[in-house]
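Lab notebook page, bench 4
Experiment: in silico fold of construct C2
Operator: M.H.
Input chain length: 279 residues
Purpose: comparison with the prior construct
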Amino acid sequence: MERDEYRRASLENWQRMAAGWEKRRADVEEVMAPVREWLVRELAPQPDDTILELAAGPGDTGFSAAARLGDDGLLITSDFAPEMLEVARRRAAELGLRNVEFRVLDATDLELADDAADGVICRLGYMLMADPIAALGETRRVLRPGGRLVFAVWRGPEQNPWVSIAGRALVARGLMPTPEPGAPGMFTLADDELVRSLLGDAGFAHVRTEDVTVRFVYAGIGEYVATTRDMGGAFSTAFGGASEDEQRAVVDELDAAFAPFSSDAGLELPGVALVVVAT
């Protein structure tokens, strides 16, 4: 898929998924708390700083940083999908935040001045962007000297069965295309060496990476499918386009594949994020 075509399709997807992400926001934040806490800690925002969040979605990661900025600091919450930004706007109102500015921004072509931010935070965004190389270059441009970038992406499929098992099942049944090598996707930036190389090319001199584990808990296969349809654009499109017989077959296949992850709580599916701080 060409870059512009992918960007258009991605924008349509996130516009469509915004309602599902708002519906599931609290559950996601509970799962992603270890990642969010790592990112905010390593960003180390200070009072009066200007912090930019890219691909903010519902915005909770950046809002955790906003609490440390004081009345004179500023969080710029941005997303390229206006509907997602509206979700973030509603969440900020719930939290009573007043030091937040909302901007529809494409991370690959930021409409911001050079040296505009003291820090940039991005949770699970770069890997899905049409041109992560351009996005990292733009991130470096808008960061002030000494400013920090912190971000998270997913490790590889074996470390993230919560998503890879379903993806393989849909591909095997011809309901979803095989991912193209190097194309935007969940595992595109799973490798340390690749991430370090891209950051170096973008002008970052110092990079540190770690792994953070998370755990997705579902009452059973029914909740897993319902949640994934609400939040996973590729899954939602593929599963929704299948016949009722195919859908039942996929659910049965996933139920069997997830059996090793059964617990008293239902299903407990592990995940691993690669987290990065760069200057």
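Observations: The beta strands are 50-53, 74-79, 100-104, 117-123, 143-154, 207-218, 262-263, 266-278. The chain has ten helices and eight strands.
Next step: discuss at group meeting.
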